[in-house]
Amino acid sequence: MCRPKRANVLTTLPRAPNDVRIDCKAAKHSDGDRGAVLAYLEADLREPRRQPSVDCSSAAIAARANKRRFVNLLQQLGRAYRKPVSRESSVNDTVIPRMEKVLTKRDFRQLVRNFKMHSIENDSRMHNLARGYWVYDELLADLSSSGWQRFGPGFKGGVYGHESIGFCIKILGMGVGANPLYFAERGYYLEHERNMMQRFRDAGFTFAPEVLNCDDTVRFLKMCGVRPHQAELRIARNDVMVTERIPGVPLAIQTGRGLTYDLCVDAFDAEVISEMEAAIERLRLSLHRANVHGLLHNDPMPPNIIFTTDDGGKMCARLVDFEIAQSFASSTPEFVTNTVAELYRERGVPVNQHNSEFTTNLDMHLLDQSAAVLEHVRRAAERRVSLLDTFTIEVPLIGVSIEVGNAWRYIQDLL
Predict the structure, then answer these.
(1) Confidence class of residue 402 from pLDDT cuts 50, 70 and 90?
(2) What is the pLDDT of residues 144-199, one digit of tens each?
């Protein structure tokens, strides 16, 4: 977004928003810039080889980490940050008019029904986005020439889609992690994810996307214009996975800034947010049943929760990213076991002080905290009439940073 010149700011407009991060303690006491403050819940990185965000060797620190802390997230999409003449904002060299109305239930259903993908190739919001890998040159060239575009940013992989095809292609190493290409040609990640998604589907849990087996994936890639030898080679090495494409709105998206997520639902009114809360609760019940059957997702974080509609038009929440899922009926790869053990500590899963055992599992703990985020967004949305209103919310600590106020940029691309 282009900022107005300083002279104009002094004479005609209030001070423009800060474009800096302030930590939780600073945010709680900060009153220096009342125009707009983007506050982030501080957290460390979560993936393997990252330092844990909580030092659980100290019982006192671990206990404090399990307490919910709140911080005011002050954010203004207000008129002071608009250009005095033009009411349009430039994003990625494309002029996009700023949305000024709060989106309703009708808007949500229209978005799902007429879902449009937005390419993230030149999206300035994305950091560390892998630009390519020589092994994938032919594959990416074939997909691009057939109209496929990368629209989903993941930590390890990027998700490619086509406007007229109801499936998407996940390519390992093409994500927005700190070093996404590290995962290129490490096919055991996608091999495990494919197997786990199929286990969930076979058990009747349709919140998991449909996934194609290896033979069907090869045929699918060939139908999409991928050279036969590339299709066969990529599947033999488990570099690629094809799954159902879910049209909808994620609770948040990854942007490649560690665990800093952009909230995607604060563009909707309180009624829509309330339906999302109900959808989260139904998802929690379904995931609990899966847990009873010995199936664990282990990562129902905001970017992995997508709000869409079912066959009857009712809003529902579904899960993606089964890379660290587990099944009690089979052995678990070591990288999954180690990551899950680390996440139990980092996410502050409550511990029984008498026997030192966890009182719940990651699935229930993380979904409860995502539901708490939605509750606070709804309370703020109930006091808002326009997206240009000041949007102040309190978000409980969930081990990540959540940035409020960028939803209009994401939703604008889908409408």
Answers:
(1) low
(2) 999 999 999 998 999 999 999 999 999 999 999 888 889 998 999 999 999 999 99
Three-class secondary structure of residue 1 per DSSP: coil
- What is the distance between the alpha carbons of residues 124 and 209, in angstroms, rounded to a whole number? 29
Only one residue has tokens 């282009």, namely 2
* pLDDT per residue as tens digits for the range 344-365: 988 889 999 898 899 999 999 9
Question: What token pair was written down for 21?
Answer: 């991060």
How far is Cα 248 from Cα 404, in angstroms, rounded to an integer? Answer: 19
Please, what is the end-to-end C-alpha distance for the chain in angstroms?
A: 20
Q: What is the pTM of this model?
A: 0.74
Nearest to 1 by CA among 408, 387, 372, 364: 408
Element containing residue 339 per DSSP (H, E): helix 334-346
d(CA 32, CA 36): 10
What pLDDT is stored for residue 236 in this prediction?
Answer: 96
Name the amino acid, one letter, at 403: E
Domain segments of the chain as ranges:
6-106+249-407, 116-244
Phi then psi for 91, rounded to 5 degrees? -125, 120
Looking from the CA of 113 toward its CB, the CA atoms found within 13 Å total 10
Long-range contacts of 38-41, Cβ-Cβ distance < 8 Å, separation of 24 or more = 38/73, 38/74, 38/75, 38/403, 38/404, 38/405, 39/71, 39/72, 39/73, 39/74, 39/75, 40/260, 40/401, 40/402, 40/403, 41/71, 41/395, 41/397, 41/398, 41/400, 41/401, 41/402
